[in-house]
Amino acid sequence: MSLTVSRTVLSLSLLALFTYTLLAGLDMPFRASMLPVLASGLALPLTLLAIYIEWKTDNDTKNQADDSSGDLAVSESEVSVDAFRRVRYFFVWFVCLIACAHLLGFLIGLPLMVLIYLLAHREPLKLSIFLSFMVLVILYGGFQKGLVLPLPEGILTMMLFGG
Amino acid sequence: MNTWDAVWAGLIHILEPTAFLYMMLGIVISSTLVALPGIGSKTAIALLLPLAFTLDKFEAICLIVSVWAVSNTANSITSILFAVPGGSGSQATILDGYPMARNGEASRALSAAFTSSALGGIFGAIVLAISLPVLKPLVILLGPPEFFVLILFGIAMVSTLSGKNKAKGLVIGILGLLVSSVGIHLVSGIPRFTFGNLTLMDGLNLIPVTIGLFAIPELISLVASGSSISKMELNNLDSGRRQGMRDSLTHWWLVIRSSLVGVWVGMIPGLGSSVADWFAYGHARATEKGAEETFGKGDVRGVIAVDSATNAKEGGSLIPTLAFGIPGSSTLALVFGGLLIVGVKPGKEILTTHLDVTFSFIWLLIIASVITSLLCIIFIKPLAKATQVRPTLLVPVICAVSLVGAFANSNNFGDIIVMATFGVFGYWLRLHGWPRPPLLLGLVLGPEAERHLWTSYQLYEWEFVLRPITGSLLILLILILGWPTLKALFAKLQQGEQV
């Protein structure tokens, strides 16, 4: 998907979202609908205005963050073909990270996925094992024991070994 | 006890060896814990409350207040180094602190942040001390309509963070308000935009949304660029440290103005201490010379403004807490609880017969801020070097810790999905130049805005906008928003006349 298409989809999604919240708000009792209706009613024309301004000043800011947008600007190296390929791989890994945390539990899933990421990026084996172990130490020692935060066990590990 | 006796006694109480030791313990615990994403000062205080129960009154005050007072200083570390906000008060630090770290100026950014933090803390404490006799009429002057318009002001401030296309900032700010309305409406019990999902019924929490909006897109950015956070050689770390301290002192007027913004926001109960940083950033961006061009790209003034305000607001937020027993924030509500445990009851008593306790608070704000900043400045070198680490080592570790940070907030796996969703959305916004900060501001201010809107409507119907202060604030708000357009229009008219 090209950046222009992606940008158009984002603008249209915002318009669709505000239209939905306005219509859904109108169906709610007055007390609950005040903020959603007021906010959506303001947001719809403002979104159209923002799209119009963007379209008008499109030539020099195309596919770039507005340099003075008060947010962190996107650099050239982040919008290259190679960069998007790396981002795609990252997304796959990130989804697996969440899935592993859910299936294997935080204490097994997260260090395991850290290890896989490091090895996939050709980091030295010893360093990869050390860092994964450090993640385990932070999770177990810092969060589970230190902060008494019960980290959830995985669905799969519970099925295999019991809760 | 007269005021000067109370000032002296307040200092003596916290300089007692055991009390001082508990203050140091509080500083170390707070600085360590708040550096972990998702673990804020609230968690730290909650963990320490059972210990406070066993201590003498001033020892407990030293422990609890120091944990709370210094949390904003250490919060800046992860914000500047990794764009991962340590807590809700350090979100705006990312905007200029992180680009500075990327430009090899991590040491300067950290040093400026810590120095401004200390100066802001001192300033906030002094304002608290001075304002004790005159605060009551000030807070009573504001009713729900004024609070509502002040919140709209907050949203309007974000439009100044949105560069040329201010409409984008407003749209995202309003989106934040809508995001805040997700969940069961507390007054009517109506589920709003929940789609029957249990996680959404509870509403969207600030921590997973913050981590998602800021940390995940920056991690993606690191992956995309394939280089370490700092793409340049780290400049001489010692000179960076000195430069950062000099920056804060050189921009003393900005420190004072931002601190005033912080105190002002802090002293309004419920407005939320987590918005002081945005207000200060917006103020600095609107008033500092050349800020429109340089802010967001690594301007040290952006860091100075935010960090002075975040620490100064603590002094401000103590004003309603001590004077009226109205905690200025949820963290202060915990501090309040801790004080009650050890027999200190905020309100009239603490300002009259126990004035020494009030001054112990003020001294603690000053001393703890200075000690924390000094400690942080000492450890700048290893911190700054972290920005040189390869992204392949940083990304998976920060991702894993962020995941737990999002979960730790409410022990709910659904928050991880919220974090991931906002991570993707934040990346999308960033890619196309839609500013992300206004969303957070809207989310933070949303519940208060709705509450004040409803109360105002109940009291005056829509005529609440015609009340003197409310009306004046609204006109000012419209002028702020419309000023650039009006200015351009006047310029065109003048040109036309000349032709």
Would you spell out the secondary-structure blueprint of this structure?
The complex is a heterodimer of chains A (163) and B (499).
Chain A: H1 3-26, H2 30-56, H3 58-61, H4 81-104, H5 106-120, H6 125-146, H7 155-161
Chain B: H1 3-15, H2 17-34, H3 41-52, H4 57-82, H5 93-102, H6 106-131, H7 135-140, H8 144-159, H9 166-180, E1 183-184, E2 191-192, H10 198-201, H11 206-225, H12 237-250, H13 252-266, H14 276-287, H15 291-294, H16 300-324, H17 330-341, H18 348-351, H19 355-378, H20 380-385, H21 391-408, H22 414-431, H23 437-460, H24 468-498
Antiparallel strand pairs in B: 1-2
Tell me what the structure shows:
The complex is a heterodimer of chains A (163) and B (499). Chain A is mostly helical and 163 residues long. Chain A has 2 domains: 3-62; 81-161, no CATH class. Chain A is built from 7 helices and no strands. The radius of gyration of chain A is 23 Å and the shape is flat. With 499 residues, chain B is mostly helical. Chain B folds into 2 domains: 3-457, no CATH class; 467-499, no CATH class. In chain B, 75% of the residues lie in helices and 1% in strands. Chain B is built from 24 helices and 2 strands. Chain B has helices spanning 3-15, 17-34, 41-52, 57-82, 93-102, 106-131, 135-140, 144-159, 166-180, 198-201, 206-225, 237-250, 252-266, 276-287, 291-294, 300-324, 330-341, 348-351, 355-378, 380-385, 391-408, 414-431, 437-460, 468-498; strands at 183-184, 191-192. In chain B, strands 1-2 form a two-stranded antiparallel ribbon. In chain B, strand 1 and strand 2 form a beta hairpin. In chain B, helix 4 (57-82) crosses helix 5. Chain B is globular, with a radius of gyration of 22 Å. At the A-B interface, helix 1, helix 2, helix 4, helix 5 and helix 6 of A face helix 5, helix 9, helix 11, helix 21 and helix 22 of B.
